[in-house]
Amino acid sequence: MLGFSQQQMADLIGVTYQQAHKYERGINRISAGRLYEIAQVLGVTVSFFFEGLEEQRDPDLSARQRMCLELARNFSMINNERHQDVLSHLARVLATEC
Questions:
Q1: Which residues contact 14 (CB under 8 A, 6 or more apart)?
Q2: Residue 43 lies inside a defined structural domain of this protein
Q3: pLDDT by residue (tens digit) across 38-63?
Q4: Residue 50 sits in which domain range?
Q5: What values do phi and psi take at 77, rounded to 5?
Q6: How far is CA 81 from the centre of its chain?
Q7: Triad 83, 89, 93: Cα angle to 5°
Q8: Mean pLDDT, all residues of the chain
Q9: Which of 6, 28, 39, 51 has the CB geometry, 3.0–4.6 Å to 22, for a possible disulfide?
Q10: Is residue 49 within 8 Å of residue 39, measured between CB atoms?
C-alpha cells in the first residue's frame, strides 16, 4: 500500500530479500520483535495486523477436542513408521475394549 518493493521493505526491517519473501508467503513465522519493527516502518500499531480477527475466531474447543488435536499433532511428529503402526494398533485395541 505504501509502494515499497520487497527489497526496500527487507532493507528497512534489516533482513534479506529472501527472508522478507518468506515472511510474505507465510513460509517463516514473524517473531514479536520483528512484527514490532515492521509496524514501526509502516507507521502502524502492531494491533493493525490483527484487526478483524475477533469476528473470525472459531468457538472455543472442548478439552476433548484439544486432546484429540494434540494427539494427532504428536502422532504426526513420530518419525519411526513402525512406532506409528504400533501406536495405531494400540489405539484400535483400546477403542474396542470400551
A1: 37
A2: yes
A3: 999 999 999 998 888 776 555 677 88
A4: 6-56
A5: -85, -10
A6: 25
A7: 145
A8: 87
A9: 28
A10: yes
